[in-house]
Amino acid sequence: MDVHIGSVETQVTATDPKLLDDPRFIARIVRLVKEELARDDLEKGRRERDRSPTPPPGR
């Protein structure tokens, strides 16, 4: 079953609330999330290729 998520909401607790106002910090979080999503996509592709039938030799 494929699941498509259009948005994600979370509650963040920070030891330094000022960090949440720092654009560099937010950009870092966004970058890390994008990297993890890209890794997930790669893994999903690997799993799909593993499940697909292999063509006979010589094709």
From TrEMBL:
Skewed-composition ranges (Basic and acidic residues): 39-52
Source domain of life: Bacteria
Region Disordered, residue ranges: 39-59
Protein name, per record: Transposase
Organism of origin: Cereibacter azotoformans
Species classification: Bacteria, Pseudomonadati, Pseudomonadota, Alphaproteobacteria, Rhodobacterales
